[in-house]
Design a protein that fits this description.
148 residues; alpha+beta; 8 strands
Length: 148
Amino acid sequence: MAIIWKIKHFEALSVNELYQVLQLRSKVFVVEQNCVYQDIDGKDEKALHLLGEYDGKIVAYSRLFKSGDYFENASIGRVVIDPDYRDKKWGHDLMRKAIAGIADYFNETKITISAQLYLQKFYESHQFVQTSKMYLEDDIPHIEMKRD
């Protein structure tokens, strides 16, 4: 069985999809990373939502923003793979789909991200380059990275 990829506007998400997305984001960004922060940040309504579904469950996810909605350039955020499925190596597929989604939906190639520092090499493998010094975001080391 393969992963099924979908890109949806906020209004097109079903209640079940939205619940699964918020559950996955909380599972990883709040519980696994032991970080209390406001995940529901008022930006979901502006974003396109990239969903990776496997066996009826959302196991991969990211938000896509057009330029000006998050950063000056288009942006990818909330990049997450369910810990139970990380052995499948779908993170690279997720990033390729996200980059393609930015190009297809927004006709943009310049992308800015706020990357967790420990994932720098992962993002560099997708042609992102560090463009800032390390900074803390919700007490987690991050760097800004850009892709032209």
